[in-house]
Specification:
This protein is α+β, with helices and mostly antiparallel strands and about 725 residues long. It has 23 helices and 27 strands. The protein has three domains: about 1-265, 2-Layer Sandwich (Beta-Lactamase), CATH 3.30.450.220; about 300-450, 2-Layer Sandwich (Alpha-Beta Plaits), CATH 3.30.70; about 475-710, TIM Barrel (Alpha-Beta Barrel), CATH 3.20.20.450.
């Protein structure tokens, strides 16, 4: 574009230069023509002026008229005219026009004829006519106006200017009778000194005389015309035209200039283009950075949302069906915790590459954050396409990943929402995909789940419940801690109580902790809830005579880095002795391998707090903890107790647990004792403590004050099973 501009500018500039050269040539031609014209006019005018200097002279009149003094005439009127004025020929004619004297080229020449040639004769006649008419009498400023006549023509076959005038006295002493005048004739050949003088005076070059108009291209001509108008020839010269010089001088400079400008412009353009490209690249980079995830290079949430909106426009127009998929890694936190964050990052990158490779063209993939990804599948013809992609992904991600020299096994769960089936609004669709993902996780991970309306309802309910629980925990008015006594199997005296939380929901009535403890864990309320229960229990128990208070601790609570410190703080706050507190944790809590859990347990046990292993038997590995003496009590899970009397196998299991625990010196509690038979069997095989509806349901704090009303220290004995 810009090079084109430069090119046209160059063409224009050169055009202007050429035109101005031609124009200045033309101007020069015109001016030189004028100069030559002036020069010729002046040159011709000068002939009679020169002539007059001798014609208007007493001596001339006398020496010609009286006794013709040839010698004097030759010196003063002949040679003089040649030497001084360069007149080529001079003739003196008497009153009858006879030639008395002739000079040629500075020398007197012999007369070949006494008649002058035709031109001279005609001019002589003309002059005499003027004298006759009395023109010589006219005086201008005291000076006689000498009649004269001149013309251009040919003398001796050559072009010449001829001037004829009478010899006249300039004083009164010499008289001259009219009609008796002698004439002097001067001739200047136009092709000789006249021409060269003019050339010298006006610095003309190549000056020549040409009869015909035989000009070359460079030459210029001035036509010489006689009085009758006939062209007798041309003065030809070579005009010094500035155009060529201008061109020869200007063009190289101009070309160099244009070249330099061209280079400069092209450099400028190139640098501009580079700057522009750089700007565009950096802008694109900035845009890319703003819309892409730095770790994986995948689009980020914002960009993904745009893509989703685009797709939804097609959906709304009824032109296609799409699937929004939310993907979430299972057990990614463990990879981060055990192999380190670098390995976690490597895994995410690897996964991103893997997912990109699985997609069909047109589908969009994004990293939404952490270990969450999202996919928009476009243009779905058949639900089986979604099934196929999801199965591919789940299967691929279930295989171990090689990361930073280690192996990580994770899984992936996928929630799918199909538009327009379940909605066409972006946030609605996202919410539904999220619910489906949640369901997939809940249903055991490593699977995919399509959103259904039932899920939506339960999710809706769950959100409401979550809000209500949050409020209940903050207000503390709907929550209560109840206490279920534990009895020594031998003497059936109360050895301790287990704190169990209750939620008295204004609309739903009593909500089970099985429901809302899990909910609190999921929505991050468990710490607040747990602290509250612990504080209530410690406050209450510090006023009772009961030996131990057991409090259930969720694995989520135990993983909090400051959990141990918070427990110790609550103990000192309530004045409760650590040795009277027992925390109940499940096997899975011990097995999750979290460092912070292990550290918390260590600190708490060191402080004298006891640890009970709850729901024992439902996990898969427990012996190692028992062996390491990291627990102070084992609680046989209610499900084993319930099945006692139903199958012989359950007897063996319970027997085995008791034997195993006793082998390492850990006492055993059986929970959920509902029948006498169960009680008898458990007592018989050596269970240390019993807990269950048979002996006592969980009781309110008020009720316990009635039982343990007195100071602490009154343990065991009464009250007995009678409370049940
Ligand atoms: P868990 O620790 O196994 O608590 C014993 C559960 O068995 C209690 O149910 C109790 O009411 C019930 N139970 C006691 N005796 C019998 C019986 O003879 N028959 C039957 N069928 N059930 C009996 P609850 O209070 O509904 O608690 C359920 C679970 O909720 C508890 O199981 C515990 O894991 C959790 N939980 C309760 N309170 C808390 C708490 O404050 N914090 C935490 N983290 N979890 C709690
Ligand atoms: Ca428990
Ligand atoms: Ca239990």
């Amino acid at each position: 574009m810009s090079m084109l501009t430069v090119f046209f500018t160059a063409v224009l500039v050169i055009g202007v230069v050429l035109w101005s050269a031609a124009r200045s040539d033309q101007v020069t031609r015109d001016r030189q023509f004028q100069t030559v014209s002036d020069a010729i006019t002046l040159g011709l005018q000068k002939i009679p002026f020169d002539q007059e200097s001798v014609a208007y002279w007493d001596d001339a009149v006398l020496n010609v008229r009286k006794a013709f003094d040839v010698k004097w005439v030759d010196v003063n009127l002949g040679v003089w005219m040649y030497d001084y004025f360069k007149h080529d020929r001079v003739y003196i004619l008497n009153a009858q026009d006879r030639v008395l004297y002739a000079m040629a080229d500075g020398k007197q020449v012999a007369l070949t004829t006494d008649r002058p040639n035709n031109l001279v004769g005609a001019l002589a006649t003309e002059v005499r006519g003027k004298i006759e008419a009395g023109s010589s009498e006219k005086r201008e400023g005291g000076k006689v106006n000498i009649p004269r006549t001149e013309d251009l023509g040919f003398i001796e076959g050559r072009p010449a200017a001829v001037s004829v005038m009478p010899l006249m006295p300039h004083s009164k002493e010499v008289s001259q009778e009219r009609g008796s005048e002698s004439l002097i004739v001067s001739v200047r050949f136009l092709d000789r000194s006249f021409l060269s003088d003019m050339a010298d005076a006006y610095l003309l070059e190549g000056v020549r005389f040409s009869r015909t108009n035989d000009l070359s291209d460079e030459e210029q001509a001035y036509p010489l015309k006689s009085k009758s108008g006939a062209v007798i020839g041309n003065v030809v010269w070579m005009p010094k035209l500035p155009g060529a010089r201008i061109l020869s001088e200007v063009l190289p400079v101009l070309a160099a200039g244009l070249f330099v400008i061209g280079i400069a412009v092209s450099l400028l353009v190139r640098s501009l283009r580079r700057t522009y490209t750089e700007l565009m690249t950096s802008e694109a980079q900035a845009r890319h950075l703003a819309s892409h995830d730095t770790l994986t290079g995948l689009p980020n949430r914002a960009f993904f949302n745009d893509r989703l909106e685009e797709a939804l426009i097609e959906v709304k127009g009824g032109r296609e069906q799409i699937a929004l998929m939310f993907l979430d890694l299972d057990r990614f936190k463990q990879v981060n915790d055990t192999l380190g964050h670098a390995a976690g990052d490597a895994l995410i990158r690897e996964l991103a590459a893997h997912l990109s490779a699985t997609l069909r063209p047109g589908d969009a993939l994004a990293r939404m954050g952490g270990d969450e990804f999202a996919i928009v599948m476009r243009n779905i013809q058949d639900r089986r396409e979604i099934d196929a992609l999801c199965m591919d992904i789940v299967a691929a991600v279930s295989k171990p990943f090689e990361v930073l020299g280690g192996q990580a096994t994770v899984g992936i769960s996928i929630g799918v929402a199909i538009a327009p089936d379940v909605g066409v609004d972006r946030s609605e669709l996202a919410r539904k995909a999220d619910i489906a993902l949640y369901q997939a996780k809940k249903n055991g991970r490593r699977r995919y789940q399509f959103f259904t309306e039932e899920m939506g309802e339960s999710a809706q309910k769950r959100r409401t419940l979550e809000a209500e629980l949050r409020r209940a925990i903050e207000n503390e008015n709907e929550l209560e801690v109840v206490y279920q006594p534990l009895y020594s199997a031998e003497r059936l005296g109360i050895s301790g109580v287990e704190a169990l939380v209750r939620w008295h929901h204004p609309r739903l009535g009593s909500v089970s902790p099985v429901v809302f403890v899990a909910l609190a864990e999921e929505c991050g309320l468990i710490d607040k809830l747990g602290d509250w229960v612990l504080r209530q229990a410690c406050k209450a128990a510090s006023a009772w005579s009961v030996e131990t208070v057991a409090v259930n601790i969720s694995s989520v609570q135990l993983r909090q880095p400051d959990f141990a410190e918070r427990v110790l703080h609550i103990l000192s706050e309530t004045g409760m002795a650590p040795s009277r507190l027992e925390i109940e944790i499940t096997e899975s809590t011990l097995l999750d391998g979290s460092e912070s859990s292990a550290r918390a347990l260590k600190i708490l046990r060191a402080a004298g707090i006891r640890v009970a292993l709850d729901d024992f038997g439902t996990g898969n590995s427990s012996l190692s903890y028992l062996m390491k003496l990291e627990v102070d009590r084992v609680k046989i899970d209610r499900s084993f107790v319930r099945h006692l009397g139903e199958s012989s196998q359950s007897y063996s299991i319970v027997q085995a647990i008791v034997t195993m625990a006793h082998a390492v010196g850990v006492p055993v509690t059986a929970e959920g004792v509902e029948t006498r038979d169960q009680q008898e069997f458990l007592t018989r095989i050596g269970c240390n403590h019993l807990q269950g509806y048979l002996l006592s349901p969980p009781l309110s704090a008020l009720r316990l004050v009635e039982i343990f009303g007195g100071r602490k220290g009154r343990t065991g004995g009464e009250p007995s099973a009678a409370v049940a």
